[in-house]
Structure formats: structure tokens, C-alpha cells
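task queued by scheduler; priority normal; single chain, no ligands, no partner chains; default sampling; output format set to C-alpha cells
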Amino acid sequence: MENPPRRTVIIKLDVSSDDADALHQTKDQFLACANRTSDWAWRRDEYCITSKNKAEKALYGELKEETDLTANLVQKGIRRAIGAVTHGVNRLKNGKKTSQPHFQSWSVVYDKRSATFSDDHATLSTVDGRIDAEYVIPPKSEREDTPFGRYYDPDEWDASHATLQYDEIADEFYLHVTAKYVGGEDDCEIQEVEHDDDGPENGVVLGVDLNVNGAFAVTSTGAFIGSADHLTHRRNEFEKRRGRLQQVGTRSAHLTIQSIGDRFSEWSLDWLHNRANELIAEAERNGVNGIIFENLKHIRKRISNGAKFQQWAVAKFIELVTYKVEDTDLFVDTVNPAYTSQRCSHCGFVHEDNRSDKEFECLKCEYEVNADYNAAKNVANRYCAYIHRGQKSRDGWASSQLALKSGTLNVNGDFNASPHIEG
């Protein structure tokens, strides 16, 4: 087969505490290699280096000496950075905004030289030697009707490489294994293949939950952007000061009210601009096609008890994101998010008692997670379902998927978290 199909299967790993420590140290050194390479290759005043061979020739020796990584992992770190730099250069050539790549999200890239993949476990290179990690899957006799059984048959799919991810919220490791089809062509034609690309044929979306307390925006990739409490606190401080000045009643006090009002308006707008930039950066880091919000009518209804300022801030934020993505390849869309706060993103069970303030615990499957994070995943889930049923249209999309930190996952899957973004 000239161009065999590929698919990515996400597998939870059973990792001991000692092995987990080794993996965390491996991640730190792997990302250090990638960031060192990015610093070396990103030369806007001269020209950017996009040759992997040049980068390896210049950096491999010193990075291998400075780290405890295997030769293959050092090379993977270098190549990951050069790939990101190349993507940035292409954006610049097309007149689009970009910046130097910086790697901070938890991930390590493996191939057959640094890992082995079997039907029930994987071995992974670390800074402390190889470790064995068992797959958290049903017994072999019970796998046939599970996602693992349907999508990962070692007799027909050859695992070529994988990305290791860590879910900070659940304290769990997941291996995103990419496998190449090696079975017969006739068998392949009836397989439901998930291609390892997230171009327009298979659109990928980022769900966003907006709030007036806690994190201002929470994404389906697990990013917590800005503090709604901080925004509200600044507004309350302004209102208190304005109230005191109004009691004074002098012309000077009136002029001061106007002055501090202008300054607060400028600060608020600047704060929202920065949070919008962070959200768009999160979307671009994950290679998504679109950013999905709840529709504004529903948001206003949900936060109707909030101050008009809070409602303005949410509406303005969506407006800013929509405006800013015009210079990118992203789009912005909305969905009716009925029950997204009550629905379990893991099993789909809906009940009002699933959520208690910022905590979510499913009464059916006992899945526990941050409630806003769960809602953001449901927003993305809802949009994917609309695409699938034809209620939403995206030209050229054969299917839609939800954004993960690396790779994608279909509706009702487990998500891996990205770092907090404070603001």
C-alpha cells in the first residue's frame, strides 16, 4: 500500500511513583532541548534555521553531554523545535502573526528506537533507564467492543511512534500511539480510520467555558486563563472609590471620577485583550481549527445575577477573540450549551447534582474534575455532535474532533491538561 492509513490511539498507563519521577525528569530535559533549539534557530533579525540536519550538527553534542537523555530523545527534542520554527516561518511568509516557539506543555516524543509497543504494555526510555508501563485496558478476552480493541490490533496496525502526555488534574499518564496499517487492503477499506492529520478534512475545535468567578476562561485542553475574581475585584475597588468621590460632590471630585473611570476602562480593555491573546495562543499551540463558545444569549442568562460589567466583559471578550482570529487560520463559532454544566464529559450522564460550585463528580461513573473544565469539554463535544448531525456546517469537514494538548480525541474521551495561564 503506497500511502497506508494511520491512526492515533490514546492509552492510559499504569506507572509506579518511582517511574513517574523518572518520566517527569525526562520531560523536563526533553523540553529543555526543544527550547534551547528554538532559541538557537529563531533569528528574526537574520534568518531562521529550518534545517534539522544543521540544528543537530550544531546542538546535538552539547545537549547530549548536558542531559541524561538517550541520543534518540535528544534528536527528537531538536526536531520538534525545528518543526515548530518551520511552521512559524511559513506563517511569516504568508503575512500572518507569529512568535518564537516556546515549549512548556507536558510531552515527550518517542519512536521505535526509544520505546517498544506491545499489546498490553510499553517500554519507555527515561533519564533513569527504560521503564515498563502497563496499559490500563480490559483483559484480552473483553477488549473486542472497547475503543482499544477496535482501534489497536498489533497484527494489523504497526505502532511507529508515540507522544507521552501527563494529565495534571487526574495525575495520570497517557500514551498517544500512532500506528500504520499493515493489514490487507480489503480489510482496510471497511475500517473506520482516524487519520493522523488535523487539516480541514478532519476539523479540530477548542471548547471554552467563560465565568464570572474563578478562572475567567477554561478550555477543553485544560488551560485556565485569567482570574474573573481579580477582574471583579478591580471593578469593585473602582466603584468604592467613585462612590466616595460622589459623596464629596465638588467639581474636582467629578473630574477625578472621570479620570479614574477612563483609566479603569483602559485597564479593563487591555486585560481582556491580553486574555484573548492567551486563548488564541492556546488554540494555535494545539493546532485547532476553531474556538467554540457558548452562545451569548445563553451566557447572559447564566450570569444574569452578575453585574452589568461582568456581562459586558464576557461579551467584549468574545468580540475581541472573533476580531483577532481574522489574522489567523482560526474561526470562532458558538453552540447552545444546554446541560453542559450538568453533563459528565466522560460518560455523558446528566444530573443537576453532578456539579457543586467548581467541583464536578459524576453520580454514575464517579468521574471527578474541575467543573469549568468539564463544561468546556462539553461545549466542544456539543459542537462536534452538531457537525456530525449536519446541524452545523464546515466546508470540507468529513468529521470533527476535540482538541487535546497533542493529537485529538473524539467525543466523550479523556482529555489531557495543559498548564495554567495566570493573569
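post-processing summary
- The first strand starts at residue 6 and ends at 14.
- Residues 185-202, 390-400, 404-423 have pLDDT under 50 and may be disordered.
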